[in-house]
Amino acid sequence: MYLVFLSLLSLNSHVLPSDKNNSLLSDQDQQSRELSQRHVTKRAKKLRVKEKEIKLKPVIAFDFAEIRERNWCNVVTCHMDTAQAYVWRLQNFVLGEHILKPCPENQTPVKACAISACGNFAVLGTAGGWIERFNLQSGISRGSYVDLSERSCAHVGEVVGVARDSTNTLMISAGYHSDIKVWDFKGRGLKSRWEIGCAVVKIVYHRSNGLLATATNDFVIRLFDVVALRMVRKFEGHIDRVTDLCFSKDGKWLLTSSMDGTLRIWDVSLARQIDAIHVDVSVTALPLSPNMDVLATTHVDQMGSICEVNQTICHKVYKNLFELIPVRNKPIEPPKKAEKAPFFLPSVPTLSGQIVFEPSDISSEKKIAEGDKLENRRSDLPHSQFLQLLQSSAEKKSFSAFTNYIKSLSSSTLDVELRMLQIIDDDNEQGPDTRPDLFPIELLLDYFIHETSCRNNFEFIQSVIRLFLKYPW
C-alpha cells in the first residue's frame, strides 16, 4: 500500500496529492494537472526502458510555501527509499533544477521535510538521524543541526518529523525513539529536549498558538507547549494506529484519523472530544482548509482524494454548541445566595432617629416570580430589528429577509448586535425552556444550520459564524 499525502493551500486553493503512479498532482479550480518530471517519455525511449523505471519513487512526505511561488521552487518532496529530496515549482508545474542531498558521507533515505516561513530554506530529516538545512534558491547546504550527545547527529534513529515556527526562530524535530528537540533555527544549536516515553509516529505544529501535536504508537494524542516545554493536553480514544493529524486554522480544533475507521474532532481549549465520525474505509490523510469549509481525505486502497464541503462537521459542532456553552461558562465556585433584603431598602423615620425597614410582602414577591416564569420567553427579547427579523424568519422558516438585513449592516454594527446576545449563568434554571437569554442564541444557531445545509450564501454565513464563535460564550 502506497502512502498518500495531500494538503490544502490557503490562498490559491491548490490541492497537492501524490498518487500511485509516482506523480505529484495539482488541483486548482477543478482542473487537475501532473507536475512534470521533465521529458520522462522521451528519456525512456532514448534509454529503451520503461517510464516507471525513470519516474521518481512514491512521495512519502512534502511541504510547500506560497510566499516565494513566483521567485523559485516552493515545494519539496521526500520519496520512498530515496536519499535525496526534490524541489518543484508550482507556478510552472515542473520539477526544479536542484536536488537536495543531505549528509553525502552517510546517505540514508530522507523521511521528513519542512520549508521555512520565509520560503527561503528547506529542512530535511533522514532515517539516520541527520537534519540539514538547504537554500531553495541555490540548492546549497546551509549547515546541519547536531546534538553533540548523539554522536554527531540530531537524533539516534529515524527523524519522524520536522517543523518550524512563523518567525524563523525555532525548529522542532522528533525522533522515532520518543525524543523531541527544539533548535535555534539560525544558529542551529540545541535549545531544549524532552522525552515522551513511547515511539513517535507523526507530529504537527501550529504556528499561531505554539502547540505541537504528536501521535505515538500507543494510539494517544499528546499536545505540548513548545515554549513552556510541558504537555498541556492528552487525548485518548483511538484503538488503532493514528494516520494523520490536522489543526484548524485558529487552533481551536484538532482533527485526527486512525486505522480504526474513525475521524475524531477534539476541542483543544476544553480538552475533550467533540465528535467522532465513522467511515467505511480508513482515512490516511485529512487536511482542513483554512476557511474550515472543505475537508479533503484520502483512504486506504483508493486512488485520489475526496474533497467534501464541511457540512457534517459544522452541523454537528453547531448542534453541540448549545450544550457546550453552559459548560464553558460554568463558574468554578457555586454562586452565593443574595441577601433577602432588596437593593434599595425602604425605611420609615422614627422619633428615636433610628431607621426601621419596612417588611416586604413575601406573598406578592412569590406571585411576581411565578408570573415571570410563566411568561413566554419570546416576550423577554429586546425589541431590536435584528432580533425581530430573526424571530419572524424562524417562524416563517425563510431567512432571506434576515440575511439581506445583516448584509446591509456594517462590520461594527453586526459586531455590536452579536455581542448583545448574552448568557446569564443560573444554576437554579438550567433548562432551555426557562432560560429566555438562550432563546436568541438558539434561533441564531438554527439559522446557521439551515443556511449551511441549504448552501445559501455559504461564504457569507461562514464569515458570520467565525465572528460569532470569537466571543467568549
Global Rg: 29 Å
Low-confidence stretches: 1-6, 8-13, 314-322, 373-382
Relative strand content:
25-35%
How large is the count of helical segments?
9
Instruction: Quickly give the structural class.
Output: alpha+beta
Task: Count all strands and give the number.
Answer: 27
Largest beta-sheet details? 4 strands, antiparallel
Terminal Cα span: 46 Å
Strand order of the largest sheet: 3-4-5-6
Averaged pLDDT, please?
A: 78
Helix content: 10-25%
Shape: globular
What does this structure look like?
The chain contains nine helices and 27 strands. The protein has helices at 40-47, 51-54, 311-328, 362-374, 385-396, 400-408, 411-419, 439-454, 458-469, and strands at residues 25-28, 31-34, 59-64, 75-79, 85-89, 94-100, 110-115, 121-126, 131-135, 141-145, 159-164, 170-175, 179-184, 190-195, 200-206, 211-216, 221-225, 230-235, 242-247, 253-258, 262-267, 272-278, 283-285, 294-299, 306-309, 347-349, 355-357. The strands form eight sheets. A four-stranded antiparallel beta sheet has the order 3-4-5-6, with no helix packed on it. Strands 7-8-9-10 form a four-stranded antiparallel beta sheet, with no helix packed on it. The chain has a four-stranded antiparallel beta sheet with strand order 11-12-13-14, with no helix packed on it. α3 (311-328) runs antiparallel to α8 (439-454), α5 (385-396) runs antiparallel to α6 (400-408) and α5 packs across α8 (439-454). The longest helix is centred in the C-terminal third of the chain and has 18 residues, at 311-328. 30% of the residues are buried.
